[in-house]
Amino acid sequence: MTFIFGGLRKSEAEKTYRMIMDLMRKKGANTSYQGRTLLMYAIYIGAKDLVKQLIGCGAKINARDDTGWTALMYAAYHGNIEIAEILINKGADVNATDNSGKTALDYAHWGIQEQMISFLVEHGAVGEREVDSHSYNNSSTSSNSDIKKG
User: Fold this and answer.
1) pTM, whole model, 2 decimals?
2) Are 28 and 22 in contact (CB under 8 A)?
């Protein structure tokens, strides 16, 4: 027997994966778009326990989608400090840059997530914007808008 996804049999894991993907589609996520990982989608729906499980099963913390976004960038944009803390504690690169040179801190600014901005700065984040600035003009991120709504 092949066990994957936290000790589940392959058939059980596939069923669980399909259920998760169905839930994300119901939440409005395009689940076959731009190389996004299951971890990124779990962050999109704010599923902290699922994030922990996926990391425990070997999800790659610093994996990138086709635009270069990491899981931490999604957490930063959505202002989910609990998930960002989990990611950072598990080794997320707080200063990773996407394909346009933006960091999680930049996306926290773009999403107007003041608490996240402070949190990231406390953890050594740097970005293009000053910490007290909230204006952001970035046309290169429009392709991520479908997952950002939530």
Assistant:
1) 0.69
2) no
